[in-house]
Design goal:
Bound molecules: zinc ion
Distance between the termini: 35 Å
Radius of gyration: 17 Å
Oligomer: single chain
Number of strands: 7
Strand order of the largest sheet: 4-5-6-7
Helix content: 40-55%
Mean pLDDT: 94
Shape: elongated
Strand content: 25-35%
Largest sheet: 4 strands, antiparallel
Number of helices: 6
Length: about 140
């Protein structure tokens, strides 16, 4: 997994263009933007900025439907549930470090300096932090 594969995915392109992911035939990362070939349409070029914004906004939006609970016997540890998918992940907010057990977090951790999945966004929100940077900088200042 590379940063480009994570950021410029067919599913992200489909969401940005409002089409079905199967209608994205091909996607290429060019210097100037992302070239997207859509079934039955003329190819489109989307900006890298649009994908980067979407990467964060989509996860923040998805975080709103998640249910966060404190694990009372595990300090700094939270359970984040997706009621519709009946799935749950464990999130930890440790001093200067955060963790989630989901695949998205693991993928991001491989390629980005700071990983932040929807479970982490939900937990940060639950604990009163506006962003991951707000949490991490608070830890440094404390
Ligand atoms: Zn996660």
């Amino acid at each position: 997994m590379t940063a480009e594969q994570l950021l410029y995915s067919k599913s992200a392109a489909a969401r940005l263009l409002g089409v079905d992911p199967e209608e994205i035939l091909d996607l290429q990362v060019w210097g100037t933007g992302i070239w997207v070939n859509i079934e039955g349409q003329r190819p489109r070029i989307l900006s890298k900025r649009a994908f980067k914004q979407h990467f964060v906004e989509w996860r923040r939006a998805a975080a709103r439907s998640l249910l966060v609970t404190t694990q009372i016997f595990n300090p700094h540890t939270y359970t984040v549930r997706n009621e519709t998918k009946a799935s749950y992940y464990r999130v930890q907010l440790l001093p200067g470090q955060v963790n989630c057990t989901c695949g998205d977090f693991a993928n991001q951790q491989q390629v980005f300096k700071y990983a932040c999945c929807k479970h982490l966004y939900a937990t940060l929100q639950f604990c009163g932090y506006g962003s991951l940077m707000a949490y991490l900088s608070r830890q440094v200042a404390a």
